[in-house]
Amino acid sequence: DAGVIQSPRHEVTEMGQEVTLRCKPISGHNSLFWYRQTMMRGLELLIYFNNNVPIDDSGMPEDRFSAKMPNASFSTLKIQPSEPRDSAVYFCASLGAGGTYEQYFGPGTRLTVT
Amino acid sequence: GESVGLHLPTLSVQEGDNSIINCAYSNSASDYFIWYKQESGKGPQFIIDIRSNMDKRQGQRVTVLLNKTVKHLSLQIAATQPGDSAVYFCAENVYGNKLVFGAGTILRVKS
């Protein structure tokens, strides 16, 4: 298995621009998680989906952030408009239904907003 | 409250020595705990897990100890190697499939 796939790996954009991060979970996994990692706040859960349905979005910072999961093999995290304080590494993780809570993380997308 | 903070402690050990990384968790209702390893430029990687009905679990070169009385979790790495250098995170399952991560500990292995 290729593991969780994220794209792009690096994104540099100017303040005010729209940013879209993409994730392909491990095939057969039915839960998907979006995290943000910064030095100041550590690893924070933004939102997670079960069977393509958003379950908990309490970590989404504000209305500028939105996430979708149109099918079991694809999810997007969109920031519009982006701000410099959104600069972080964004991770996607997926989880199977095997009875454990072991989430498998992707390599992350490093976002820099100038 | 959640055991997420801004401080990132550092543990420096000599190659071949044993390492012990500690973690305090805050939710007494948590029933599952995981240790993750994160190398520079990569996503967190699963190391070992333990359920709340256990006190100890062993893997290859790693052991996790759980003390529910004081809400403390530790990761022991035997014969630490340079490849073990990374940031280590503990995480607790609070409810559903949600994990709450600690701030992390930097492990530096000196050759």
Care to describe what's here?
The complex is a heterodimer of chains A (114) and B (111). The radius of gyration of chain A is 13 Å and the shape is globular. In chain A, 0% of the residues lie in helices and 54% in strands. Chain A starts with a strand and ends with a strand. Chain A is built from no helices and eleven strands. Chain A is an all-beta fold and 114 residues long. In chain A, strands 2, 4, 5, 6, 9, 10 and 11 form a seven-stranded mixed β-sheet that branches. Chain A has strands at 5-7, 10-13, 19-24, 31-38, 42-50, 53-56, 65-71, 74-79, 88-95, 104-105, 109-113. The mean pLDDT of chain A is 95. Chain B is an all-beta fold and 111 residues long. Chain B has a single domain (10-110), classed as Immunoglobulin-like (Sandwich). In chain B, strands 1, 3, 4, 8, 9 and 10 form a six-stranded mixed β-sheet that branches. In chain B, strand 5 (56-58) and strand 6 (62-67) form a beta hairpin. The interface between A and B is medium-sized, with 25 and 24 residues.
Descriptors for this entry?
heterodimer, A: 114 residues, mainly beta, 7-stranded mixed beta sheet, 4-stranded antiparallel beta sheet, 11 strands, B: 111 residues, Immunoglobulin-like, 6-stranded mixed beta sheet, globular, disordered N terminus
Summarize the model shown.
The complex is a heterodimer of chains A (114) and B (111). Chain A has 114 residues and is mostly beta strands.
Work out the helix count of chain B: 0
User: Number of DSSP strands of chain B?
Assistant: 10
Helix content of chain A: under 10%
What's the number of domains of chain B? 1
Largest sheet of chain A: 7 strands, mixed
CATH superfamily of chain B, called what?
A: Immunoglobulins
Mean pLDDT of chain A, to the nearest integer, reads 95
What structural category do the secondary elements of chain A indicate?
mainly beta
CATH third-tier fold name of chain B: Immunoglobulin-like
Strand content of chain A: over 45%
